[in-house]
Amino acid sequence: MAAFVGALKKLSICLILWLNTPPFLQGGSDYYEFKYPFIKRASSFWASSSSFSSSNTDEASYDYIIVGGGTAGCPLAATLSQNFSVLVLERGGVPFSNVNVSFLSNFHIALADTSPTSASQPFVSTDGVINARARVLGGGTCINAGFYTRANSGFIRRVGWDERLVNESYPWVEKQIIHQPKLAQWQGAFKDSLLDVGVSPYNGFTYDHIHGTKVGGTLFDRFGRRHTAAELLASVNPKMLTVLVYATVQKVLFDQTGRRPRAMGVIFKDENGNQHQAFLTNNRRSEVILSCGAIGTPQMLMLSGIGPKAELDKLNISMVLRNEFVGKGMADNPMNSVFVPTNRPVEQSLIQTVGITKMGVYIESSSGFGQSQDSIRCHHGILSAEIGQLSTIPPKQRTPEAIQAFIKRKRDLPHEAFKGGFILEKIARPISTGHLNLVNTNIDDNPSVTFNYFHHPHDLQQCVDGIRMAAKVIQSKHFTNFTRCDKPTVEKLLNMSVKANINFIPKHTNDTKSLEQFCKDTVITIWHYHGGCHVGKVVDPDLKVLGTNRLRIVDGSTFNESPGTNPQGTVLMMGRYMGVKILRRRLGKAAHV
Fold first, then answer.
1. Average pLDDT score over residue span 6-27
2. 226 among the known binding-site residues?
3. What does the entry list as the binding residues for FAD (predicted)?
4. Ordered DSSP codes for 42-104
5. Helix (H, G, I), strand (E, B) or coil at 476
6. Choosing from 227, 276, 380, 528, which is the catalytic residue?
7. For position 10, what pLDDT does the model report?
């Protein structure tokens, strides 16, 4: 009888989950094709490149062509389509029927998938840190840890945005896809520990960026389902929008007969490798808008002939406009982690609670992404070599012997060790910057990226301060009571972290003695890279590309810093903000936005 009741309970839970699951996950792709009829495969584009000429008619053209249907591109398209014809060209597929994207429990699997059609495309910076970029409609909102927060007010002032419009644009996003998390027990213990070590006051649940400890929003609903930027397309004018997936833009086309290069359209290839061209209308206010992200947008500009002379010359790219700043000032917020052991099982949790300190570092935490035997050998969630998080050894030094030694060391770790989690320390505004360079002219290949982690001594000192605080958090009575572990020494914590911090980097004997060395040897990424197309150097304050007409950039490549503890909220807002701004300038009150 007890077994029957247990089975009945499980069946009831499954039924409740199924009934609360969106139809697009119940029934595959049919639902999204019904709800989003404007989303089509690139091969369906009606005209081949041979059908176009420079004298294209308005019938075959668009008011706006958005390159990249990601975190900024989707809200931008949804907004512009209220009044104008919009074409979105996204190189990846749709997220709706991809269970690895849709569920929190599969977060690490989506990042571990390195197949050519994966939602995540790995890349390795020249620093040796493995990273990832999105390749899916919805962009980074499909593969990230889901945490949502607004930018600090200082960031908004520094970029010169209209604060009133900013405060209208954030809620537009939040009402559609953001949720208040059900706080995991781990995150509750983390919250109490932060307060215990002085990261105060407690600001409760809030989207605002305020010093102290807070619980932020999340893309995951109470059933652990992810809601992405792609769902913002539900608010479009469907008659005015076309979204092509598996549409890889290769370059922007320009009319160079005038005083300034004038964007005319783009060349893109479909999923079968066939090339197409799409054009803007002849209206002077029509635009190609690049929303390819901090890696893709500088790369796209250079492949289109806008960039440093030496960079274009080395690959025989015809120069449209010389700009030595394209690809410069690349930055990534370095992150380091401290492993937290536990003698009790913990549920999976991604970032829900954050400590916003006054010393320029943010403290976050994740737990429970290593509880199965398969996970021990394959994945460690947010801190996994397999998902492209943890290697700081240059590729040339990744010998087969080093890799095998790493695999053995990983398998020898006790299963209980991965029932715990990690305290993450991220530098808010790194001074160290790097650069992006083309490797070849193939848009499918990653460019070469250098971030120069800890190149500036101030960044390194901030990391040291952050690690010290992370250790204090773990030593707090709230965490030791929760984990049922004795209060560990800092050296023991660092020793466990070096071993659990799975990468191929040769360990130094003083890793647990020197916090500076620990920071350098265990640096990872949290995917908050930005820059490469800065305001005043590549774009003007309205994000129009300097020296051109009808070309604009709307994404994080224009940022000098990563906004807030996690940037996705501000990038989502940015898409809406710029869309409204463009409509109001073009139509005034008639825009009705």
1. 44
2. no
3. 90-91, 136, 249, 527-528, 556, 567-568
4. GGG-S--GGG--TT--GGGEESEEEE--STTHHHHHHHHTTTS-EEEEESSB-STT-HHHHBG
5. coil
6. 528
7. 44
